[in-house]
């Protein structure tokens, strides 16, 4: 095991993991903060272009040997990672919660989702790969096989700081690629623990590399010539930039999954209990910070008043608090920038004349978790006291309005507990029309007891993930995860990630002693 050197540990600054060892790095430092308290969790080095180059060189060097192993042998290393993730479930789940603020049940589920992905990718190693394809010529065998593309650059977000890296890396590695990964700057400690897991699992040097840092380190990965494929999950603005940069580099591939402005359509035939529960889960789990969270609830006029009453009642009472407490439904937002963005959109909604139904955006002091109100004063002094009063707290903000695409709070992703109720009349097609009337298309759900309405939604909804009578969060790993329209280019996930990280070869073998061509083409060599 090559854990950090004593000097490195004592310096209190964590570096990168390159070529099978922890390296100090010499970039500026940055801190990981606990969003519930504002406290510093740990200090890290920002990856520089030089660090990224060292990582991509190591990954390139390791590639030949790694690709030379069988699928099964590569998967064996991933099974070690799988067991490490399970063994460190509680600990890592808590790290997730401390670092990104989502409540502990979600923190642990993040780790579970990670090992599910590893299980899928490693298990898939023993499944058939490719297709046997008939040939026009009886003496020929034709089939498809795949080769790894080489070095895969993975850029991942903070909201699923353990699961999403494994969406990218598990498949890439089993398929024979090596990886260079940059975690989100908000969740570097999760990255550090994952590097320890790869190290403890004995994954050969250079196969897995981690560079901590900010957007400039991510950009260096995208620009690096040694990187053959970029997998990106995160915001639309960054993701579109990544896709454009990669498109300008012939031979490089990108698969990017971005956010959405997701919606639930609650029809006149909805079961109200399912509708309200699905809406609460979809809007407020992870404090609205999933790319699959809903910020639009489109409800038929026949059930609108009942839905509104029940949803508003719950949104007023839903438990916002200490994310480590199992009695909490919503933890804080991830950082000050998210808080600011959330408030800005709430303000925009007011200016655009919506009717506000629930405003817990600025939680009143009584809502700050027990026993910590008294340190509000030190927060005001700008001190990091570790008090919940220093956390990035926000509660639900819910409003009702007519559908109007000029209201940008209805069409742009906020990434917080900012939710619009929109009433519709007529048949389900009108609900679906509003649902589709945005530039994004990641996920959505229809709530109805009428199978015709569900099928209509199934056929017409412009989304990559769709649900009926369920929240539109909580996808399982074996389904492709990616969107349409502005929400994505490819799906950097499970089976679909295989497309991005491998080259397909259409392979034809002649078993006869003569050459016989397809399409009736003569194989005679005609001479003068
Ligand atoms: C995200 O929303 O950023 O489907 C990822 C879900 C999780 C993954 C969410 N499995 O809710």
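-> sequence recovered:
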């Amino acid at each position: 095991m090559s854990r950090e050197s004593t000097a490195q540990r004592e310096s209190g600054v964590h570096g990168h993991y390159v070529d099978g060892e922890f390296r100090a790095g010499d970039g500026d430092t940055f801190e990981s903060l606990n969003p519930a308290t504002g406290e510093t969790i740990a200090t890290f080095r920002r990856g520089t272009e030089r660090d990224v180059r060292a990582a991509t060189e190591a990954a390139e060097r390791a590639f030949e040997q790694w690709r030379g192993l069988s699928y099964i042998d590569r998967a064996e290393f991933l099974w070690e990672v799988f067991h490490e993730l399970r063994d460190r479930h509680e600990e890592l789940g808590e790290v997730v919660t401390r670092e990104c603020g989502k409540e502990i049940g979600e923190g642990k589920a993040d780790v579970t989702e990670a090992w599910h992905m590893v299980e899928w990718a490693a298990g898939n190693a023993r499944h058939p790969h490719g297709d046997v394809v008939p040939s026009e010529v009886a003496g020929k065998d034709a089939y498809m096989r795949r080769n790894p593309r080489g070095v895969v650059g993975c850029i991942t977000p903070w909201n699923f700081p353990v699961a999403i890296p494994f969406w990218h890396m598990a498949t890439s590695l089993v398929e024979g690629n090596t990886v260079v990964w940059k975690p989100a700057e908000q969740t570097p400690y999760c990255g550090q623990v994952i590097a320890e897991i790869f190290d403890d699992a004995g994954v050969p040097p250079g196969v897995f590399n981690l560079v901590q840092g900010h957007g400039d380190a991510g950009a260096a990965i995208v620009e690096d010539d040694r990187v053959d494929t970029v997998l990106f999950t995160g915001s639309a603005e960054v993701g579109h930039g990544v896709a454009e940069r990669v498109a300008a580099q012939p031979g490089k591939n990108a698969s990017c999954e971005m956010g959405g402005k997701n919606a639930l359509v609650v029809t006149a035939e909805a079961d109200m209990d399912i509708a309200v529960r699905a809406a609460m889960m979809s809007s407020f789990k992870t404090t609205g910070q999933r790319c699959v969270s809903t910020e639009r609830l489109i409800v038929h006029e026949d059930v609108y008043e009942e839905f509104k009453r029940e949803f508003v009642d719950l949104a007023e009472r839903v438990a916002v608090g200490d994310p480590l407490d199992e009695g909490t439904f919503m933890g804080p937002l991830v950082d000050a920038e998210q808080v600011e963005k959330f408030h800005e959109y709430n303000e925009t909604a007011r200016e655009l004349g919506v009717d506000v139904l629930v405003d817990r955006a600025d939680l009143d002091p009584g809502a700050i978790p027990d026993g910590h109100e008294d340190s509000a004063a030190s927060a005001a002094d700008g001190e990091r006291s570790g008090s919940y009063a220093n956390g990035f707290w926000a509660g639900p903000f819910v409003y009702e309005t007519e559908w109007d695409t000029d209201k940008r709070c209805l069409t742009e992703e906020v990434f917080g507990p900012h939710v619009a109720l929109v009433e519709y009349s007529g048949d389900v097609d009108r609900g679906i029309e509003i649902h589709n009337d945005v530039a994004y298309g990641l996920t959505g759900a229809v709530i109805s007891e009428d199978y015709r309405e569900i099928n209509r939604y199934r056929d017409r909804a412009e989304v990559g993930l769709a649900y009926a009578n369920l929240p539109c969060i909580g996808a399982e790993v074996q389904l492709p995860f990616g969107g349409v329209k502005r929400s994505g280019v490819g799906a950097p996930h499970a089976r679909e990630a295989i497309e991005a990280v491998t080259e397909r070869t259409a392979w034809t073998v002649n078993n006869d002693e003569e050459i016989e061509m397809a399409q009736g083409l003569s194989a005679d060599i005609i001479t003068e």
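The first strand starts at residue 13 and ends at 14.
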